[in-house]
Amino acid sequence: MSTPPAPTGPTPINIEIPNDLQVRYANFALIMHTPSEIILNFTSVLPGMTSAKIDTRVVMTPMHAKMMLSALSDNLQKYEAQFGEIKLPTGGAGLAEQFFSHGKPPG
User: Fold this and answer.
1) Are 32 and 23 in contact (CB under 8 A)?
2) 47-70: buried (b, 16+ CB within 10 Å) or exposed (e) per residue?
3) Pair 59, 37: CB distance under 8 Å
């Protein structure tokens, strides 16, 4: 009797998306970090609003955040290859800070 060969590569993970998964729209993110975590806070801000409440928070390790950044970059390249370049509004360096502010770590 022979033993089956050892698996090559990582074991696949079965990811399930529940039918009742709540979907949140976000056009604003407050990004913070500690030495061991990256914290992403999301909300939506509509024209004329003077305040908004964070409704979604995702916490991950810096390594996972960097892996997600790479995956997001790859997906945006594929998106632009299929649908064309995504044009960003003009507004200088402050535009990204306005919409995706980089907060200081909690004190």
Assistant:
1) no
2) eeeeeeeeeeeeeeeeeebeeeee
3) yes
pLDDT of 38-76, one tens digit each? 999 999 998 888 899 999 999 999 999 999 999 999 999
Model pTM score: 0.71
- pLDDT tens string 83-98: 999 988 776 655 556 6
Residue for token pair 């060969």? 5
68-73, Cβ contacts within 8 angstroms, sequence gap of 24 or more? none
Cα(30)–Cα(56) distance, rounded to whole angstroms?
Answer: 11
* DSSP category for residue 50: S
How many Cβ atoms sit within 10 Å of the Cβ of residue 99?
A: 13
The full set of domain ranges for the chain reads 28-85+98-102
